[in-house]
């Protein structure tokens, strides 16, 4: 090489030759020989190419080393950078840096940013260095403290502005400033920022806003452009939480999400699927639109209403006295609008493709389906008024238990061979309800059911086993599960008429008792009827039995307290449901007023009655007197958690809130000229049925005949009721525009005093 003619060329000619090459080719030529390296690293040549466009380099972060570095460690090291334009790796020598262990953290416009240990510092304090690996120039940025590099993320934008995000503050440095100093953000992040990125003139980062037991990620943004206050050396801006309807449930689906990059109004995020969505933790990428988009979730689905089906209606009228001006319900077939055929919109189960394990397409598809489904749930929850479910709950602390198959097989008071159970929680919940209904621990037996209907099925079954030839008496407005039990157990069932309020008519009850005086009576007493929320008078029912010649050993009373069974004890002057009275069992739903997220219930009966149902099960090493056998072991934990958090005082406050809001709704309906009724001990407001079935479906109203109802639960706020009322009044004005088209008379359903039809108002 020494005899090569190129050695005889003048230096400026060599500079012109090499400067015609690309920067990548120049870096390659450095390693050809010592002469080329000297020429291409000379100050004159560096100055010549300094105006070239920068390399688009991506620095490779080396692996972490957990051992201590020796003081004699070589200061010379190399760095591997990736050139995406040429799709190749380049090796850059960093021997010009007088630092140990350089650790790249960012790169922009051909500059590389590194943390490195000072060679002269005995404490090994790290410095933040920016260098140009081509020109071999470097610069040490101002120090911010001994521990600043241990928990900071370094960001660099397209203008080489450097930002270090820490847990407590965001620090900013600009090369354009004559005074080389850091400027502080007015930071208001809820937690340490995760995977921050710079997009245009904004910084984006993920923050955990969840609980210590469950992470919940949110996207935060902060603008950094034109916000410098040079006099105060402070950035006058705040972080803003970004939320968009169209993103759906992406932050709940992804595990350990990370922001990758952004461009314009789009951000690329990557993360694994949570175990509840995927067993193999496949990777999922998501592109999110940052800009707001007008979105109306109620317009997503516009399906036609289902066809009208004619069904027999056995509504009572035989014992009602004729009243002038009151339309009487007639026993005839009436039209019932059934729900949609789910087969038209069901989600088919498909077999995975052979390469799904590697592509993750199936997991991504399922994650998208679940995200859209959650968005639907959020909207339907927002417009939920007609069914008695308390949707105001937060069980984030219990998410850690969803990875276990908890099954309370058999008797809750006797452990079985299956060890993954929650009997200790179940019995604790049962004891709480036993105290509420005033029965001693050694006198009751019960269990947590899979739903409210199972409690009724069990209560009626116990009554039938106690009195095999007994007749079941239930008011016509009892829950349909009571009549289902009669069919299942082949029991003789007598339907008792009701008052206008929905309460059992004890006059008719007495007539029917006397007609069957030779057989024992099994009675279902409603602690809140399904449609009108009426509470049967337990004391009057017992008095009627006694007056009809039924001693306590010839009747069995089951109290169906699905919703109001937990509200009644906290209502002043309300009749008590207690085992100090001659009742046999009480059941209540756990997913209604309590607010358990899965259907469940509590059933309690007297110990003396349960032996007729109990049987020993050898392979369980336990006894079983339940109906279903396997029972959800998570439900008792959720109930136990809620009872502990709220207690008697908490439930009392919620009951008072529900009753207060129910009266507000009733008063506003009556004020708008709409027929409405509210029973004294109830939070169920009954009113005239809306004419538009689409409106009924939108607000999920429960309807029967000419009436509908709203069940005011703890999650139903005044604001929500106002939205509903305003929409109802607006719609109603279009339903009855014509003079001859008037609202229906519902006096037979709610009473003349509550009817606002033309005849009664």
UniProtKB/TrEMBL annotation:
Keyword presence, Transferase: no
Modified residues (N6-(pyridoxal phosphate)lysine): 592
Keyword tags: Decarboxylase, Lyase, Pyridoxal phosphate
InterPro entries linked to this entry: F-box-like_dom_sf, F-box_dom, Group_II_Decarboxylase, Kelch-typ_b-propeller, PyrdxlP-dep_de-COase, PyrdxlP-dep_Trfase, PyrdxlP-dep_Trfase_major, PyrdxlP-dep_Trfase_small
A Pfam family annotated for this UniProt entry: F-box
GO terms (BP aspect): carboxylic acid metabolic process
UniProt key word Lyase: yes
Residue intervals of the F-box domain: 3-48
Family: Belongs to the group II decarboxylase family.
Catalytic reaction annotation: L-serine + H(+) = ethanolamine + CO2
Gene3D superfamilies reported in the protein's UniProt record: 1.20.1280.50, Aspartate Aminotransferase, domain 1, Kelch-type beta propeller, Type I PLP-dependent aspartate aminotransferase-like (Major domain)
The name this protein goes by in its record: Serine decarboxylase isoform X2
SUPFAM superfamilies named in the record: F-box domain, Kelch motif, PLP-dependent transferases
Disordered: annotated segments: 308-331
GO MF assignments: carboxy-lyase activity; pyridoxal phosphate binding
Superkingdom classification of source: Eukaryota
PANTHER family named in the record: PTHR46101, SERINE DECARBOXYLASE (PTHR46101:SF2)
Cofactor(s) this protein requires: pyridoxal 5'-phosphate
